[in-house]
TrEMBL record:
PANTHER family, per database record: PIRIN, PIRIN-RELATED
Domain Pirin N-terminal: 42-141
Annotated cofactor note: Binds 1 Fe cation per subunit.
Residues annotated to bind Fe cation: H79, H81, H123, E125
Name of the protein described by the UniProt record: Pirin
Similarity annotation: Belongs to the pirin family.
Domain Pirin C-terminal: 193-290
Length: 333
């Protein structure tokens, strides 16, 4: 699922540095992906006012479980991306992915699909007919300056669960305990689904150079002693070599663990584009609206719309946002 808001909000983004031992708690904001009262709604934890990134992870939407019969599921017509990688992870349901790189793939629970847009790509996402409930996360990774125009690419991997103290882990990206993912990224990252049993306590080594975020899908988790409730995210800055997760409840807790080296470049993120300046975003929008070859075409999509139209640009100038807050205003999704 991509960002199909028709009126992306404008706000200043960034965060102030925190002591390594301090956990920052981020509450989600609700974002409707349609016009009707029954349209699909997601809970978005990054980006927001308090924080732009966790490592190079720059976008986290959490959705479901949604009854497809009630919400209509997902039918996202071809739309563009630049300078990012999308990471799709489902807990329930199935989505048909098609892109202008010629990839036709099914996104299923427990299988990571990473699409690299680079210079430009377009793709569609549609819930399959057999899907009753749709439940998962959509994550974006910003590409660094040296790789922002790389070739289109698609990677698929089904991680096997590995045992950890008090639970299991599936490693989407990077390395955690005995789990290693072959998915390659342009900046050092960690991404994993963790399930902890009731009362479990798991303290483990982490990369001291990584920021870490914990997005709670179900139950509640204590992250270094700070309670993080369902749908919220706990974030800790780099500097410590271990992380302590515990489940204080009497039922299983499921989380997404995200990590990565701090990303210090400034970016402009608007709609489905990532650029480095206002002028670049204007050029990207114009290229998409005139159906430029930059993004290619998606074959096989059978939805009602041929493609999504880009929303109007805001009246104010778009300015980059950074890991640490700087002067001026930036544009947030």
């Amino acid at each position: 699922m991509s960002n199909i808001e028709s009126s992306p909000q404008v706000m200043e983004c960034g965060h102030e540095p925190h002591p390594p031992s301090e956990v920052q708690r981020l509450e989600p904001r609700l974002v409707s992906l349609g016009e009707g009262a029954d349209s699909m709604t997601v809970r978005r934890t990054i980006p927001q006012l308090e924080r732009s990134f966790v490592g190079a992870w720059c976008f986290a939407d959490h959705y479901g479980p949604n009854l497809v019969e009630a919400t209509g599921g997902m039918d996202v017509a071809p739309h563009p991306h630049t300078s990012l990688q999308t990471v799709s992870w489902l807990f329930d349901g199935e989505i048909e992915h098609r892109d202008s790189g010629g990839i036709h793939e099914l996104v299923r629970p427990g299988e990571v699909n990473l699409m690299t847009s680079g210079f430009g790509i377009s793709h569609s996402e549609v819930t399959t007919d057999q899907t009753e409930y749709l439940h998962g996360v959509q994550l974006w990774v910003v590409l660094p300056e040296h790789a922002k125009n790389m070739e289109r690419e698609f990677q698929h991997f089904r991680p096997e669960p590995v045992d950890v103290d008090g639970g299991t882990a599936k490693v989407l990206v990077g390395t955690l305990e005995e789990g290693v993912s072959p998915i390659h990224t342009e900046t050092p990252l960690l991404g994993a689904e963790i399930v902890l049993r009731p009362g479990a306590i798991w303290e483990f080594e982490v990369n001291t150079g990584f920021e870490h975020g914990v997005l709670v899908d179900s139950g509640s988790i204590e992250m270094d002693g700070v309670l993080i409730d369902k749908d919220s995210m706990g974030v800790r800055d780099a500097g410590l070599g271990n992380l302590r997760l515990s489940n204080p409840t009497d039922r299983e807790a499921r989380i997404m663990l995200l990590g990565g080296e701090p990303f210090d470049e400034g970016i402009v993120m608007w709609w489905n584009f990532i650029g480095r300046s206002h002028e670049e975003i204007v050029e990207l929008r114009d290229a998409w609206q005139r159906d430029d070859d930059r993004f290619g075409g998606v074959r096989g999509y059978r939805g009602q719309l041929r493609r999504l139209e880009a929303p109007p640009l805001p009246s104010m100038r778009l300015k980059p946002r950074y890991r640490r807050r700087r002067g001026g205003r930036g544009h947030q999704l």
